[in-house]
Design goal:
The protein has 14 helices and eight strands. It has 379 residues and is an alpha/beta fold. It has two domains: 252 residues, Rossmann fold (3-Layer(aba) Sandwich), CATH 3.40.50; 92 residues, Tetratricopeptide repeat domain (Serine Threonine Protein Phosphatase 5, Tetratricopeptide repeat, Alpha Horseshoe), CATH 1.25.40. It starts with a helix and ends with a helix.
Length: 379
């Protein structure tokens, strides 16, 4: 009996121990929207370096993710994987997931009573056309809230699928400066007799998009009776045709047809490809950069030119490159990487400690002592 009780106690202890650990990918927030007259829920993901005390506090781009209840977990996983380590293909970013309360109302630009999809879903059109208020929520309430509470860099990405892609297109055309880049996935451009196509036809002729980037993804469609799939494909192809013919000023764009994906499966591959397109010039080849550290700034100049926004290498990246160089007895290159980190992160104690280590290895005692003093002066 005693042995049984002892075993139960051990099981209880170990079970509690395991239950106390958890993996957290984000935090939930609630803000009341005057524009929408309701409380809205947000899910916020912070990148790994955000709270890393080793590095100086940095600012981060933000991705605003529509339909967060459907794709927050997958998108944050993609973002973290693509932004990981010295071979990062995109920058580390904050992800703000926006969950729905009335999706059709918020993500459609006009009222429409057209019956679509199957008969049992016809009620979805009884409340529509609230996109104006939703965009006001994004612009006047949500963006300022995120910028106030988090270290944001000023570069913002909007990711939208289906009706979310329709909203992204509307914002691109009419509120262009609200976001720097857009991932538009299988957008419902058939809405209200292709109203966004008609708007684009006019706007593309006269608007300067000021170095915005857009990625448009189109899924494969199978025509189904009483469905909008044929109209969906037609609308997206018309939008692509307009982009080719009108060549909108200072709008960088890419389009891809996903033959093996349908409307439901396309978000993950499209988000991956969309992020890769937007940040095409982000990746710096490690081996080449170790031989020539100047390649880092050259690459980031290309990225900044592509995006119309000044991007700089992260401290964690420069720290890794510097230490990797030291480990491979490339002391001069290590110093170059650490000096570059000093240029962008002059208040980082870690930078000066790293420089002290590198100068010590190079035999430059005076510079080593100087870096040691600099590090000591920083808290």
């Amino acid at each position: 009996m005693k042995k049984t009780i002892f075993t139960l106690i051990l099981l209880f202890y170990f079970t509690n121990s395991f239950c106390q650990d958890s993996i957290t990918i984000g935090s939930k927030h609630h803000i009341f929207s005057k524009a929408l007259n309701e409380e809205r829920n947000l899910w916020v993901y912070l990148p790994p370096d955000y709270n890393n005390k080793k590095f100086a506090p940095a600012k981060y781009p933000v991705v605003y993710l529509l339909d967060a209840e459907s794709n927050f977990h997958s998108f944050t996983g993609l973002q973290q994987s693509l932004a990981k380590g010295p071979y990062a293909m995109i920058p580390q970013m904050i992800v703000v997931g926006i969950t729905n309360t009335n999706r059709t109302r918020d993500l459609t630009p006009t009222e429409a009573n057209r019956q679509a999809f199957f008969d049992k879903k016809k009620n979805m059109f009884q409340q529509s056309g609230g996109n104006k208020n939703f965009i006001a929520f994004l612009e006047i309430e949500l963006r300022p809230y995120i910028d106030k509470n988090y270290r944001t860099s000023g570069y913002n990405v909007l990711n939208g699928h289906s009706f979310g892609g329709l909203t992204a297109t509307n914002i691109l055309l009419h509120h262009t400066k609200l976001f720097n880049s857009y991932v538009i996935i299988d957008p419902s451009l058939w809405w209200d007799n292709e109203i966004m196509i008609k708007k684009a036809d006019s706007i593309f002729n006269k608007k300067d998009f000021e170095q915005r980037s857009i990625y448009i993804a189109m899924a494969n469609k199978i025509s189904i009776s009483q469905d909008t799939t044929t109209d969906m494909a037609r609308g997206i192809r018309k939008f692509e045709k307009l982009l080719k013919e009108k060549k909108p000023k200072n709008l960088r764009w890419n389009f891809k047809f996903y033959e093996n994906e349908d409307h439901g499966t396309i978000p993950i591959p499209a988000e991956y490809d969309g992020l890769r397109f937007i940040f095409k010039e982000h990746l710096v080849q490690v081996k080449e950069a170790v031989q020539n550290p100047d390649l880092v700034e050259e690459q980031y100049k290309k990225l900044s030119k592509d995006t119309g926004f000044t991007f700089i290498p992260s401290e964690s990246y420069l720290d890794w490159m510097g230490n990797y160089s030291l480990q491979n007895d490339k002391t001069d290159q290590a110093i170059s990487f650490f000096k570059l980190a000093e240029k962008y992160y002059p208040k980082s104690k870690n930078v000066y400690s790293s420089l002290e280590k590198a100068y010590t290895k190079s035999g430059n005692t005076d510079k080593s002592n100087e870096m040691k003093k600099n590090a000591a002066q920083l808290k």
